[in-house]
Design brief:
By secondary structure, the chain is an alpha/beta fold. The chain has two domains: 260 residues, Aldehyde Dehydrogenase, Chain A, domain 1, CATH 3.40.605; 196 residues, Aldehyde Dehydrogenase, Chain A, domain 2, CATH 3.40.309. It contains 17 helices and 25 strands. A seven-stranded mixed sheet has the order 15-18-19-14-13-21-22, sandwiched between helices. A six-stranded mixed sheet has the order 10-9-8-11-12-24, sandwiched between helices. Helix 3 packs antiparallel against helix 7. The longest helix has 29 residues. The chain is globular, with a radius of gyration of 25 Å.
Length: 541
């Protein structure tokens, strides 16, 4: 059971941090990767603050663990120029290389990446406050994702390694890259979700400009040499700095062909508007969400509570797939709240490296103030914090606040909190919940908790055209990675799964000829003499 004293004494003194998890020294990063070279940035640096505060006789101080380049427009454009040269209108070494050659490069990168597991995991903990278990899981899941992507591409290429004959025409259909991709990931999964667009973009033959997330930046540093040594020059370029000074300039050139972005719908819209040829820009976007959990009156309450606690508070609720609002039938609301609050009180707060820790400090500057304002607004309009210590704050730490009864006049009813505030809305008429989902600006996922199959079936039919995924008696989530991950409305553009991502970063191209002896002879010569990297019947094992 958490008490107020524990929260007040949450942060450690430097000497009490286990040696295995201490950062050895301040990390001043000046390197960035352009055209196969690590270049030293000679300009200003951006300090990287950890959400972890350090206790000293003078009080608590937010740890500054390093710095990264504050690159300007000129440096960012040099990275874009390198990617454009490497693509060379589709005639460059990378887009014309065979699938087997691209796979070999990605496998080489994966081997080097695995050597950096300890460094990346430590930086995940220090930069974004993710606990040790989840940081290790993010790294390992990312490696597994790369392996699965390689295997999926092999299977995709096998299906394309034959010719078809239809209506007197010989044809071979293969997938080819789009061009130059700009990849930007989110701070909550700065490795995994970033790589779910970055790796498919690369392995399909696109060249890439990659800008790390706004938090979780230093953890890319241990991978820079692996990128440099595994791919031809200009294929992968890594830039840093403020988005308005770097990314905006890239979009304005019109040279970006694919925009892979995980963030807010406002940020995506602002950047897309800068592109002078928007119809030529493919957007692959993972955006905001306000995923509801719906508790029906006939329900396995223990399961619903367990799933809703995990769904709303894993990584402090800082997940696009988190349950952001919970609707509970009035008849079971008291039982739900009693059990939910008890479960929240058992969650252990602490530092990311401590065993069993579930609640950690928040990386966004001003986040605790933002959450407190949401709570104050809800209180002003009739809700109460109904769990013990709810909203208790210490610097960058915020203990989860369960708000009840929430109604439509409150900001938290529609606004995505992206943090440990859990709004609970009582209802008597399920039509109110259906209307909420239909009228919402977002449509990523939702969860239905209930045992009455007729009620659940009716809700499935009500919601299947509103969201990308309906979870039955389970929290919202992304995995397994073989399942489609998408959304409607302002929540997403495009579909990501292992195979879907390969399709998003490529386009089908057909080579066709008349089905006659001359055509067959010419195609046979091209294949036999390996005169084309596109036309091929090679089978990748």
């Amino acid at each position: 059971m958490t008490d107020k004293t524990l929260i007040q004494n949450l942060f450690p003194a430097q000497e009490s941090i286990p040696e295995a998890y201490r950062l050895p020294e301040y990390i001043e990063q000046r390197e960035y990767l352009v055209d196969g070279k690590l270049i030293d940035w000679e300009g200003d640096l951006n300090p990287i603050k950890s959400p972890v505060c350090i206790k000293s006789p003078q009080g608590l101080t937010q740890a500054v663990i390093g710095s990264t380049p504050l690159m300007d427009e000129t440096a960012a454009l040099s990275a874009l120029d390198a990617a454009v040269r490497a693509y060379d209108t589709g005639r460059g070494e990378w887009p014309t290389s065979s699938v087997a050659e691209r796979i070999q490069c990605v496998e080489s990168f994966l081997g080097r990446m695995r050597q950096q597991r300890t460094a990346v995991v430590n930086l995940l903990m220090w930069e974004i406050g993710k606990n040790l278990k989840d940081s290790e899981k993010e790294f390992d899941r990312t490696c597994d994702y790369i392996v699965d992507t390689i295997n999926a591409l092999k299977e995709l290429d096998r299906r394309s390694s034959r010719f078809v004959v239809e209506q007197g025409t010989i044809g071979q259909v293969r997938r080819v890259p789009f061009g130059v991709s700009l990849c930007m990931g989110p701070y909550n999964y700065p490795l995994n979700e970033t790589f779910t667009t970055l790796i498919p973009a690369l392995i399909m033959g696109n060249t890439v400009v990659f800008k790390p997330a706004k938090f979780g930046v230093l953890l890319i540093r241990p991978l820079l040499e692996a990128f440099r040594d595994s791919f031809p020059p200009g294929v992968i370029n890594v830039i840093y700095g403020r988005g308005r000074e770097t990314v905006g300039a890239l979009m304005e050139t019109g040279k970006i062909d694919v925009f892979a972005f995980i963030g807010t719908n406002k940020g995506a819209s602002d950047l897309k508007r800068l592109h002078p040829k928007p119809h030529r820009l493919r957007g692959i976007l993972g955006l905001d969400a306000k995923n509801p959990g719906i508790i029906l009156k006939d329900v396995d309450m223990d399961n619903a509570v367990s799933e809703c606690v995990t769904g709303s508070l894993s990584f402090n609720g800082q997940r696009c797939t988190a349950l952001k609002i919970i609707f509970v039938h009035q008849s079971v609301a008291d039982d739900f709240l009693k059990k939910f609050n008890a479960a929240v009180s058992r969650l252990k707060p602490g530092m990311p490296w401590e065993p069993g820790v579930a609640l950690t400090p928040l990386p966004e500057p001003g986040k605790t103030e933002f959450l407190n304002k949401l709570v104050a607004d809800a209180r002003q309009h009739g809700a109460e914090v109904v769990n013990e210590l709810g909203g208790e704050t210490n610097e960058t730490f915020f203990f989860p606040a369960v708000l009840y009864p929430v109604n439509s006049s409150m900001r938290v009813y529609n606004e995505e909190q992206f943090g440990p505030v859990i709004p609970v809305v009582p209802y008597t008429d399920i039509g109110e919940v259906i209307d909420y989902v239909i009228e919402s600006n977002f449509g990523q996922q939702l969860s239905i908790f209930g045992d009455n199959s007729a009620d659940v079936g009716m809700l499935i039919d009500s919601f299947c055209n509103q969201v990308g995924r309906i979870n039955l008696n389970a929290q919202c989530q992304r995995g397994p990675d073989t399942f489609p991950f998408n959304g409607r409305k302002d929540s997403a553009a495009g579909t990501l799964s292992i195979e879907d991502a390969l399709l998003q970063f490529s386009i089908r191209t057909l080579v066709a000829a008349k089905h006659n002896e001359d055509s067959k002879a010419m195609i046979t010569r091209i294949i036999a003499n390996r005169e084309s990297s596109y036309l091929s019947t090679d089978f990748i094992f």
